[in-house]
């Protein structure tokens, strides 16, 4: 059905034609003798593309799917297609925002933000496990965190090239201007009250805050001057802070060679309770094998898709 773009219907006791894959029946724990597969197809100037398949299976107890049921399923399939198409559009827009930041700041590569997003998910998974956060609840957190981490430095689009691309050390005035990227990024997600916008705003604004209160910008999401420290800093921002620093230290930059992993680990341990949430540092260290796989998958010049790990 995915290849042809045509609806498929298997009725009981058919002697010929394709059967339901055994892997599907084993996963469902039943003997599926009737099946209905409806393509989720979208049209464009390039033609029709199947982006998914809605599959229903029936056990021996049913005689197949009626014409009435087929109409209902096709209606559900049309709604599912629209939802998937919108999700793809949102993802494409997000990656264009990432690309804009990448064009402005030569250190903010697509590989970097994907690694930071991947590290962040690995830390979240380790943090969630002892709390019994699993299933749909964990997946919702992962989705929001992954996209927010991709966009953590998008506010750099509002910083001048003279500062972003300066080869030497920034002076105090330039440093203060650079730190404004957190506030600029947060403003991009203002005006909308969705879970995604809230998470993206928190991460953009507060991923440079420190556990001990010595970070920046030291304002709340409404713009009021208020020192941020400890658990007053949102969880996602505390996670991205670790992921961002880990990747910055472990990666080659124009001004430095990559640190060996043991030196990066030593730095995280020494900054636990000062720069970073100590509990999340422990989670990051537990996730090191996953970090290594993410580094291999998203090395500079080698990018795969943008789906979350």
Q: What this model shows, in words?
A:
With 309 residues, the chain is mainly α. Helices cover 51% and strands 8% of the residues. Helix 3 packs antiparallel against helix 12 (288-297), helix 7 packs antiparallel against helix 8 (195-206) and helix 10 (261-271) runs antiparallel to helix 11. The protein starts with 7 loop residues before the first strand and ends in a 12-residue tail after the last helix. Residues 302-309 have low confidence and may be disordered.
Keywords:
single chain, 12 helices
Give me the secondary-structure category.
mainly alpha
Query: What count of helical segments does DSSP give?
Result: 12
Describe the main β-sheet briefly.
Answer: 3 strands, antiparallel
Q: What is the gyration radius calculated from CA atoms?
A: 24 Å
Strand order of the largest sheet: 1-2-3
- First-last Cα distance: 27 Å
Q: Which series of helices and strands comes N to C?
A: EHEEHHHHHHHHHHH
Summarize model confidence as the mean pLDDT: 87
Number of separate strands: 3
- Strand fraction band? 5-15%
Q: Are there runs of 5+ residues with pLDDT below 50, and where?
A: 302-309
Give the helix level as a range of percent: 40-55%
Overall 3D shape: elongated
